[in-house]
Write a structure and sequence with these properties.
With 134 residues, this protein is α+β, with helices and mostly antiparallel strands. Helices cover 32% and strands 43% of the residues. Strands 2-1-6-5-4-3 form a six-stranded mixed beta sheet, sandwiched between helices. It is globular.
Length: 134
């Protein structure tokens, strides 16, 4: 297993353990975070703001993680299932009432010099909305 995959595995292990500082320690200072919806966030401070927002609105753990890497080992793809609880209403989304959801998702990450430099996340937002509206 290459070093980039190990770094990304550690990042998601921190995610599942709620260790936000551990996650942040693996990111470069000018991390590029590309969300499923909206404008990319650049910089560790913006990422920390995003994490605080996510922690306020959602409780999530990831299962069935599968990691892929290209031959040079700089890019890593991850497929996973998001198991979540919608805790607090997120602006522009349906009202939160503690709804549970199980949603397939994926991410693409780049790693340089031992730090994650980009995270791009994809999931089906209309599917998620249908899960929390029922």
């Amino acid at each position: 297993m290459n070093q980039s995959v190990e770094i990304v595995k550690e990042y998601y292990s921190h995610f599942n353990n709620g260790n936000w500082e551990g996650m942040q320690s693996l990111l470069c200072e000018n991390i590029r975070h590309e969300p499923n919806q909206g404008t990319p966030r650049i910089g560790l401070d913006k990422f920390k703001e995003f994490q605080a927002h996510m922690e306020r609105c959602y409780q999530e753990t990831l299962t069935d993680l599968v990691f892929f890497s290209e031959p040079e080992g700089k890019r890593v793809a991850v497929e996973f299932v998001v198991n979540g609880i919608y805790k607090s209403t997120d602006e522009g989304l349906p009202e939160a009432k503690g709804q549970k959801y199980v949603l397939p998702a994926g991410a693409f990450l780049e790693v340089e010099e031992g730090k994650i430099t980009r995270i791009t996340t994809y999931y089906n937002l209309p599917l998620w909305e249908s899960m929390v509206l029922n």
